[in-house]
Design a protein that fits this description.
Helix content is 43%, strand content 10%. It has 291 residues and is mainly α. It is extended and about 100 Å long.
Length: 291
């Protein structure tokens, strides 16, 4: 009995040590599991901007390690032309007046447009800033009549379903006042269709994936510059985001899996009898806050 009493504290100590080891191992495995299952942090990806129109592709994760990009980029002196204040005000007002004439036009002529003009406006769009200068955009210019018609068939088929089933009564009613529906004649008549794809990732020379930070925001900025460039040369367009058409159009145009359709722009001159809705824009006090 005395022997048992003297050994009891030792047994208790051993049991406590074993329990501690088991708990530590269990917590370690749990943390390891949580770390493995926890998605990697990608602060440049806005969940609200993800599109859901893509095929379900099993794609490996982008390499989180250093991607082999040039470590040091040379910096060069930068100068910009400065204007007197009066000239700045004048130029800013003139530019506003110019862009304020831009309208979404759905009645486009088939009159030819010089190809060099299209080259230059897309070159201009390519001056857009982008996350880490990844330039994650592809501008697909379609001028072939047969291909344009195939695009129209895909878009109209999906758009009819959108209007009748997917969009809902509120959205459809909001569009009624603009007299728009799933019939897209301009996809045939416009001399050019420009389809803008965002590259959700790129490829390095060694074949590994290259992260394209803020790819959707970057491409959206490029689209805005493209709209201004089209206005600058007297061409018209309507911003089209055909719901559920992205995968089919990507396959039709033979674009790779890393490219997702963001915007479709029919480009040309307006028809002589073209009309636009009599809309007004919000005044400055409704869109700007000064603090």
């Amino acid at each position: 009995m005395a022997l048992f009493s003297s050994l009891t504290p030792a047994f208790i100590a051993i049991i406590c040590v074993l329990i501690g080891v088991i708990l530590k191992k269990s917590n370690g495995e749990k943390e390891k599991c949580e770390t493995k299952s926890k998605p990697l942090s990608h602060p440049w990806v806005d969940e609200d901007l993800k599109d859901g129109t893509d095929h379900h592709l099993e794609e490996e994760e982008v390499d989180e390690e250093w991607q082999g990009l040039e470590e040091n980029v040379a910096h060069v002196p930068f100068f910009v032309e400065r204007y007197p204040e009066a000239e700045m005000i004048k130029r800013s007002q003139m530019f506003y007046d110019f862009l304020n004439k831009r309208r979404s036009v759905r009645f486009l002529s088939d009159e030819p447009v010089p190809r060099e003009v299209i080259d230059n406006v897309i070159r201009t769009a390519g001056t857009s800033p982008s996350g880490a200068h990844t330039e994650p955009w592809t501008f697909v210019v379609v001028q072939d009549p047969d291909l344009k018609h195939k695009i129209r068939e895909i878009v109209e088929e999906e758009e009819e379903i959108n209007y009748k089933k997917r969009m809902g009564d509120r959205w459809v009613n909001d569009l009624k006042r603009l007299r728009t529906n799933w019939i897209k004649e301009y996809l045939d008549t416009a001399p050019y269709l420009i389809l803008i794809f965002k590259q959700v990732y790129g490829r390095l020379p060694n074949g590994k994936k290259k992260t394209h930070y803020y790819n959707e925001i970057s491409v959206s900025i490029a689209c805005g510059i493209l709209l201004a460039a089209l206005q600058n040369v007297g061409l018209c367009t309507v911003t089209s985001t055909p719901l559920n058409c992205g995968p089919q159009l990507r396959v039709l145009l033979q674009r790779p899996a890393n490219e997702k359709l963001l915007l479709l722009l029919p480009v040309g001159y307006p028809k002589k009898d073209a009309t636009v809705p009599a809309l007004t824009r919000k005044p400055l006090e409704d869109i700007m806050v000064v603090m």
